[in-house]
Queue: 2 jobs
Job 1
Amino acid sequence: MSSFDENDAFESASLSARAMAARPMPYLDDLNPAQREAVERLDGPVLMLAGAGTGKTKALTTRIAHLLSTGRARPNEILAVTFTNKAAREMKERVGRLLGQPAEGMPWLGTFHSICVKLLRRHAELAGLKSNFTILDTDDQLRLLKQLVQAANIDDKRWPARMLAGIIDDWKNRALTPDKVPAADAGAYNNKGVDLYAQYQTRLRELNAVDFGDLLLHMVTIFRTHPDVLEQYQRWFRYILVDEYQDTNIAQYLWLRLLAGGHKNICCVGDDDQSIYGWRGAEVGNILRFEKDFPGAHVVRLEQNYRSTPHILAAASNVIRGNESRLGKELWTDKPEGEKVRLIGHWDAEEEARWICEEIDAMRSGTRGMRPFELNEIAIMVRATHQMKVLEDRFLKIGMPYRVIGGVPFYRRLEIRDAIAYFRVVVSPDNDLAFERIVNTPKRSLGEKAQQTIQRTARDHGVSLLQGARIAAEQGLIKGKGGAALRELVDGLARWNAMTRGPRIEIDDDSVIDNGAEPARYGDPEVSHIELAQIILDESGYTESYLKPLSDEELKLDPSPPRRPRDHEAAGRLENLKELVNHLGEFENLQGFLEHVSLVMDNEQDNDEPKVSIMTLHAAKGLEFPAVFLPGWEDGLFPSQRSMDETGLKGLEEERRLAYVGITRAEEVCTISFASNRLIFSGDFKGWQSMLPSRFIDELPEDHVEVLTPPGLYGGGHSAPGIETHAAQANVYNSPGWKRMQARQGQYGMSQPRESRNTVIDATAVASFALGERVFHQKFGYGEVIAIEGDKVEVAFEKAGTKKVVARFLSAKDDVPF
DNA sequence: GCACATCGGTGGCGC
DNA sequence: ACCGATGTGC
């Protein structure tokens, strides 16, 4: 211990002497007092509590620049961890800008996973792996687990492999190796979870592979069992910085705590109010506990917000105030008031979508008493992906350009994954999982039986699947068409593999290491990896499989015609493949590319035409837009019922943080909306369900909210009867919040419908319906009550058929509103 | 082995 | 409603 301190003292003395002579630090003048403190307090544990839009990245990057320019650390002695590659890229770029030079020399600025890959490749043997291990993605992982589940004779119906994958991920997130799984979890997956977990780990080791969870888990295990290795890194990483600390899971937390264990120069940046990944293993407790974990920790609060107007901040603050477990923070801004948060209710999601589109059009032309907005300044954020469909339908219908942020990522698409599997087999011929994927893709008449033969041959000879396939093909174990196709595939793979290296140049006897991990030892390839990729895809017949086979007649007419894609979808897939090949240019070789795709999960952005962005609230984190729409604020959808059922108050609090994230994305205008009716699918109940406005709406502070008047229900103007119907219907909401809203409506000149007192059936009035009574429903018309269950009534409607509806939306036939 | 029908399950999504 | 996994008939 003491030798550490001496060492540190010596180093910092000499370095700060160097720093004294160094230039002034103009970047510090750019900071507010809190940010400045977060930057200048370099030693010891620091928790930077950074609210939304408070200049967190600025503080973090300036801190790195400060560490460097004061000479406290060299670039490669700083460990800076983020969650996403995007965040890592942004940080690199900003540090570079601050320093006035590219931050190339920061090899340890990256995601948890990419840094762990680097470390694990260095120490692979300590985890029973070779340094060229492959990283399995979720699909590979699932396929492997399925095999194990089947081998264990478990009914995959009752005990889906997916479930097992989830359980294992959870254990890995908690840094539990199979032998450490607590007794309380022994019953998992029909009592076989732990055993299968152990088998899975063994299998991974045999395959020289790891999954994402292993990257952290292996490193934590290595650090724990090899103090010498740990000490080496504790000394090397003089300063540690962590972004989005509220999103760390237990394994990441342990990893950090181990590394910071020596000098404790760790600066964690985060916002407990934006912890929204609990379902993925994130422990908001990590950030809440920081001061206990690191005694003497200094906490800096960044509370000045540079993004949103006071109304928006007030709304967000009031909502998040409902959470119990918080470190507590109050955002403020010196921006002018601006618009109040706008609130509006609709009949159903379709009308909600229609209204949003109309509103966007109005905002675009500046007819809302606000400045005109560009489409790319506007975003719609939903709780669940299925909410996107109705929005997209509407956008397509009226031809408004939009983009979905965070859709199916490019490389997760079928054709991309297939192509990548080809590359993997070519680069690592013993990658069995990738081989399995491509052996009969495209179809080579190598079905279940043929593949079993290959598996058996490989096992009998103790070799990889590809080797086994070669042997099986040579020995004629696979007959007919399949056999010929297999031989062709095996030959092709060997040929392409040779091309990854080009002509071999002997430097001297022991510098030629043929482990595939040292391509630099070899001479220039004859073909670039880009050309090679094209060759692989073409010669394997893969691209061909998306081309339309010509009929015999067409062949007669023209023996060498240009092939056309089979259909619209195939055309898209070919486009994607082309894009993939182009994308390869950014990498030095196929290996580099494959490493990248293992770790990268960003979606490509397309062209530059201004578009409205649609995304989930999760995808919205870290983004900001001048105008934000937040539709679907209904209890059950948001907050999500499932989330609340599963984790109770904890779940509700996470939902509330999601609401907070949503509101704080908005810079100028934030519009929240809800629908009264929604089509739902749950269990045996499919159909329309009446929805109550989200409880979060009740938590909006009334002084900062403006209730908008919905347009006519049936497309009419402001005097159409529909509007009254709608308002009357909206009136039934019983929450205090809604009552406040309602009161305010009067204030804004929209009188309460005269009939409302008569037409609206209060929730307490359910009992007043009798079997056989004739009733009216605003959407379904007249009908007769045929059953009553609690607050739901089954009605045989004259036109709409039999439906279960919530009693509140029915009126006795005498009270019809118009 | 492949094309089509049926069944079940269904949240958010990073590396 | 819709996707993916499985089952069925050719």
Job 2
Amino acid sequence: MPNKKNARTRHTSVSQRRQVTIIEVAEAAGVSIATVSRVMSGSPSVRSELVERVRRAADELGYRPNPAAQRLASGVGDTIGVVVPNLANPYFYDVIKAMNIAAATEGYQMLIADANEDPDEEFDLSTNLLRQVDGLVLVSPRMPAASLRRLAQENVHIVLVNRVAVGVGLPTVAVDNYSAMVEICGHLARLGHRRVVYLAGPELSWQNVERQRAVEQAEAFGLEVQTVPAGASIDTGHAAVDRALELKPTALVSFNDLVAFGALARLQELGVRVPDDVSLTGFDDIPFAAYVSPSLTTANSPQRVLGQRAWQVLHQMMSGAEVDDTPLVKAEVVIRGSTAAPTSSTPDRLPSRPAAGSAAPSVH
Amino acid sequence: MPNKKNARTRHTSVSQRRQVTIIEVAEAAGVSIATVSRVMSGSPSVRSELVERVRRAADELGYRPNPAAQRLASGVGDTIGVVVPNLANPYFYDVIKAMNIAAATEGYQMLIADANEDPDEEFDLSTNLLRQVDGLVLVSPRMPAASLRRLAQENVHIVLVNRVAVGVGLPTVAVDNYSAMVEICGHLARLGHRRVVYLAGPELSWQNVERQRAVEQAEAFGLEVQTVPAGASIDTGHAAVDRALELKPTALVSFNDLVAFGALARLQELGVRVPDDVSLTGFDDIPFAAYVSPSLTTANSPQRVLGQRAWQVLHQMMSGAEVDDTPLVKAEVVIRGSTAAPTSSTPDRLPSRPAAGSAAPSVH
DNA sequence: CTGTTAGCGCCTTCAA
DNA sequence: TTGAAGGCGCTAACAG
């Protein structure tokens, strides 16, 4: 508890009024606190006259139950926790937003934690949240399976999003990354591409593992695949391009859209044209993928569905229902302007200018 | 409390263990619960030998204090609430993320609520959150001043972000929208633009009021300004373009970047070239503004600073410190590719094709 | 420095 | 259908 009570600033002029408790309501209504409690929780076994009286007293006094007390007494609350690797990634927002809406519909609130792409922090935040929420959603967790297993042992309901962990016994909601990525590679192969570089995501990311597996699998289609480590954000994509180009690929396959954006910016700085000189693909189809230029060929990972389903599963667990193991969610490949057939004259030497003029976007 | 306890699914195989309480730790360590409490809260007045014994007992048993009980007993907690109009707007990401990081550094957690651009829900969510958090941040609230005033009366610390409300007595952290928008208009005027349409944001948004005020003020520069209502999201921008074009402007000034993105997409569908046929500006400089094509002229609203400052102010209030009224944060205008001098041949009739080929991004 | 003891506000048997 | 009373787990005086 980092806090002290009883603060006062020149902004808080009005005399702070204490919390209205159930006792005051009971007195005002001339009933016992038990009755008030019953009325507040909508118990049917209260004479309607009393219900009326209590209701009136309650909102005249502006009574609102104290959640901490409710939770302490009843053992349950109305909030769920969510841990994400990085709050700055739009991909997660859609998942979170969908989840939040679904949860709010049933009266639940959301405690959010940002792990900053750090697996250890992820675990710490999770254990911490565990104590105060009724359910926990881990979105794309990077923490090791052993950590997940420890969490699974705890007395809280947990669901995993976009992380399939075998032998952990946690229900999972995930996208079929593999198939979609195979399709993307197939698309490139059909266009006539041969040399492809995969701009890899975070090593510990299940999604990265799946996508990379697919890309490598694509060698069966005659693609020659090499991998360059990048990450999950715009700047890692930007930074990885130079190494990737040394391998003289005709196409760059990015871990996700953000990496692709970064790569695109760098390519433009270098004067390498997309898709004329090199094709580029993303993954996730975040809302901006359609608005960059050239618009990005990517795979539409249905975030909203994921979010809704995650809540649905969690809710099932919390209400003691049997949990359906949900199948992988399909991701649709979206062909846009950033991919095309390779030209015969793949540039063997690159332009030496470090950056084009004012048109070149700067990366922060 | 929407919840029931005691759920069981085929996933939760291990026998759920009860919460370890302070009593068990006390017994295991052979001390009183008061001592355990002291040790856990780092009180200096405990013999180091006992500290040691308690610590060992605590983590052997895996003891973690129950936050609900702590909060009930002490009256304070360690979580702050945040209400945003729309979680899907990237503008808010950075504000939230910065705030979250700052708060986490001091041991605070974040309860998030999405008001879905609905002022009433905003108020409800706020009053609800009020009961269970130690501080509340309202980001760009659209609710009426009267509602804010009621909230201000409550026994919680509140800070406003990007909403200046006079006579409400709530500390505020905000961007200087007005000056930046005046600058944007000046930029257009210097380029030689005369007829400008403002794609307005949400009516109840203070930021919109400020930006619109600035645009209208720009008539002093010789700009002829007309306003078309749009909103705060991509699709509202997309939808507003047709009406805007009827006014035959040489430049479109958008409420924010998202609206500009939507407008850009629609303009491209119509075959109207940016900036050749019409210039376009945004506001906020979200990370993607540099990556669309043409890259967007906009104003860099320093979200991170806002987030940090919001936390700083809130923290000051919560710790009873005097609150500095912070001055408006300056927004820098960023000139990019979407603005240029108007050509003499402003298209009087538009191309009739409803949409260009595969290059036209689709809006969802 | 340490232990005892009231509560914090509410829920929930258990009787009536 | 209602009320009385015992906790929920912890903090914070207050004694010693």
